[in-house]
Amino acid sequence: MSRQPRTQNVTTDAGEARVTWVPATTAPRLVLAVSHGAGGGIEARDLKALAAALPAHGVSVALVEQPWRVAGKKVAPAPKTLDTGWRGLWPALAAPGLPVVAGGRSAGARVACRTAAELGAAAVLALSFPLHPPGKPEKSRAEELLGTGVPTLVVQGGNDPFGRPEEFPPGAYELAEVPYGDHGFAVPKKSGLTEAQAMDVLTGAVTGWLTSLG
User: Cβ atoms within 10 A of the Cβ of 64, count?
Assistant: First the structure.
């Protein structure tokens, strides 16, 4: 694989998706495939930070755009349709012949959790996992997170209205906190933490975890 970023369009049963590959700059050992949430794209600060940091550690980053985003739609479809798009992308993500860590932020994290076992993902990275809708802790989605069946890391903002770190139930997963971060990992100025420092916390946690996977 070339070490220059490249885009790849992939036809799925949910429409045409797109993968932006940011190849490892050292001997590649893993692919981290990460998708966006329901309200944004791959320009999210956490996805950009991972794509900048991980290639130097032998991780090729695949930034996945679901078909609805590629088609220019403003609203994400139902979870079942998101899963269909992700399944259709999987052969392209596995094509380099490396273990694939399934990941995403928010809605994308839920997709990765729901499909990891059936697709043979090596692990799951859940960024800003939406444990529940804001203000509705009784509508828990913990079952998705607890049912991945593979090593799982959650990276959560300390002030995420979709679930603060202390709200997460015990389970067979790891959890890293970005202090003061909201659902998009933005941090308030009064926190004393800069965005760059917040992203360093995030990328450091992910890099360490991926290294521990072997």
Answer: 27
Tell me what pLDDT residue 5 has: 85
Helix axis angle, 45-53 relative to 195-212, nearest 10°?
A: 50
User: In this structure, are strands 15-22 and 6-12 parallel, antiparallel, or unpaired?
Assistant: antiparallel
Residue with tokens 């697709």: 119
CA dist 125 and 148 (Å) reads 11
Say how far apart CA 198 and CA 186 lie, in whole Å.
Answer: 8
Instruction: For residue range 144-175, list pLDDT tens digits in order.
Output: 999 999 999 999 999 999 999 999 999 999 99
Q: Which residues pair with 34 in a beta bridge?
A: 63, 103
43-98 per-position pLDDT tens digit: 999 999 999 999 999 999 999 999 999 999 998 999 999 999 999 999 999 999 99
Nearest Cα neighbor of 14 from 88, 69, 76 is 88
